[in-house]
Amino acid sequence: MKIRPWPVMITKDWNSLGDAVLELCVSDLLMKKFPDYTEGQLSQLRASVVKRNSPGEPGENFKIGDYLLLGKGEESSGGRTKPSLLSNTLEALLAAIYLDSSFSGSLRIHQPPLCIAD
Predict the structure, then answer these.
(1) Cα–Cα distance for residue pair 12/84, rounded to 1 Å
(2) Are 98 and 106 in contact (CB under 8 A)?
């Protein structure tokens, strides 16, 4: 495994992988919580959960914006609190957790923020 120097540039590849990890984690949790649901029901539920719990929201809760290295323009325009930037950063973080640890490591970060009710 190649160790990358810090800071790591967040790219669309990281975001894409993080998005896939997010969907996989949510799907896994939903299948375990609602074993009798059909594939269609699970797909609809997953879509509503991912939309309702957009990655930017947990990003705000985790204060991810406090750790970003931003340019002057992004800093002055409130980049640390922009939902799109927080969402992209959290997706990249999920990708990094997945690559560094495992699927179960990625899954652990999702359980508290999703809090799926019956």
Answers:
(1) 13
(2) yes
8 A C-beta contact, residue 26 and residue 50: yes
Q: What is the pTM of this model?
A: 0.66
**Alpha-helical runs (H) found in the chain:** 12-33, 39-52, 56-61, 72-76, 83-100, 103-114
**Pairwise CA distance, residues 4 & 54, whole Å:** 28
Q: Is residue 102, in this structure, part of any structural domain at all?
A: yes
Domain containing residue 25: 12-114
The answer to whether position 87 is within a domain reads: yes
CATH code where residue 107 lies = 1.10.1520.10
Instruction: Show which residues are catalytic.
Output: 19, 91
Residue 30 pLDDT > 80: yes
Question: pLDDT for 32-76, tens place per residue?
Answer: 899 999 999 999 988 887 765 555 566 666 788 888 888 899 999
Task: Please count the structural domains in the chain.
Answer: 1
